[in-house]
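Same chain as my last thread, 177 residues:
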Amino acid sequence: MENMQVESSGLTFEKVWLMFQETNQQFKETDKKLKKLEELFTSQWGKLVESLVEGDLVNILNQKGIQVHNTNERVKGFRFGRQFEFDIIAENGDEVVVVEVKTTLSTDDVKEFLDELTHFKEVLPRFKDNKVYGAVAYLRVDGNCDRFAEKKGLFVIRATGNSALITNSDYFVPQTF
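reply #2:
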């Protein structure tokens, strides 16, 4: 009886299946558009956090005794079969502070950045004779990974309202890479 009602309304299994496939395709296209919007939002949010950190970086590093005078953002390249990107590099000719900026900092982010730092002088040989320090900067932090970063010898920078501040303890000694 149900089959007759479906057929009498002009709907067949094939027509219903075709409508289902069209709807499924529309969902996939909508999902792609939403992912693009999310990537755009995330990218712009990340740039905002980088700007907050970079804007006050020279000042806060100078307060910690590292007299940097120059910063470069988004330093990218490919060298020795290795692609690299560093969010911010602050320098003074003798010392370099490499800063990884994250909206939300996780322990995995810290571990990946520490690995990247071990190759820093290799991919950017112009700094081979410099003391290199690492720093992680964030807006939000997962768990205690900021303390993990400090234990690994990284400066920890929290982006705040219109600037940034280093949150390491007074007795912190940065590791050189």
